[in-house]
Amino acid sequence: MKKNILKAVALATLVGAIPFAALAQNAAIVNGKAVPKARMDVLAQQLAAAGRPVTPEMQGQLREEVIAREVFMQEAQKQGLDGTDDYKNQLELARQAILIRQLFENYRKNNPVTDADVQAEYDKFVAANSGKEYKARHILVETEDQANKILADLKKGAKFEDIAKKQSKDPGSGANGGDLDWAAPASFVPEFSEAMIKLKKGETTAAPVKSQFGYHIIRVDDIRQAQLPKLEEVKPQVVQQLQQQRLQKYQEDLRAKAKVE
């Protein structure tokens, strides 16, 4: 009698443990179908990637979300929506997007940007941008006659800034008295930069400078050595730029090697 009771207790304990074991690896069981906890993990990763890290307090919300999705999916399957051409086409596009994203992530993981790569790119940037920077102003007008009249007015004592505000057709700098702030010569069109670098501090061009935008009157307010950011300040941007360049090259190489008929 005692043995039979013990067996019954043991059997009841074993039977009762099965649902709990199933729930340990599943978020829930909906209409007899298990919903793996892995779905909650993937959803949490997607939220984190979108800038919304999941806190422990949000686990209940995640569980409710995957349960709701399972309920809706089962109903859609019951109505035969998973057999439509539209569903199959969208599913294929989604499958491709996931695989392609994983392909690119795998490439980035296997081809990391090293500190040496970043240093080399930074050195190229410094070499290309070292030199002088100019704090210049300009007045931009449509005709050479207009420009010559302004030069004549400046010689009579008119203020450069006042004329720029009233007559310059460059709205960005004109509102600020023609101020272009600090910039390297390469920032401007060739005709402008060639005329600007010939000026000393405080000088104004003696004649109008013609470019594709019109006629410029240029004044240099100050000159200094280029102020470049330190490597530590721009390292994240350099890493991102190198990653993008490499990924683009990888994509182009794959496309070039593909046999398309």
Automatic annotation (TrEMBL):
Keyword Disulfide bond: no
Alphabetic keyword roster: Isomerase, Rotamase, Signal
EC number in record: 5.2.1.8
UniProt-listed SUPFAM superfamilies: FKBP-like (SSF54534), Triger factor/SurA peptide-binding domain-like (SSF109998)
Alphabetized GO MF terms: peptidyl-prolyl cis-trans isomerase activity
Domain (PpiC) ranges: 131-222
Residues passing through the membrane, by range: none
Tagged with keyword Isomerase: yes
Catalytic activity: [protein]-peptidylproline (omega=180) = [protein]-peptidylproline (omega=0)
Signal peptide: 1-24
Family note: Belongs to the PpiC/parvulin rotamase family.
UniProt protein name: peptidylprolyl isomerase
UniProt organism field: Variovorax ginsengisoli
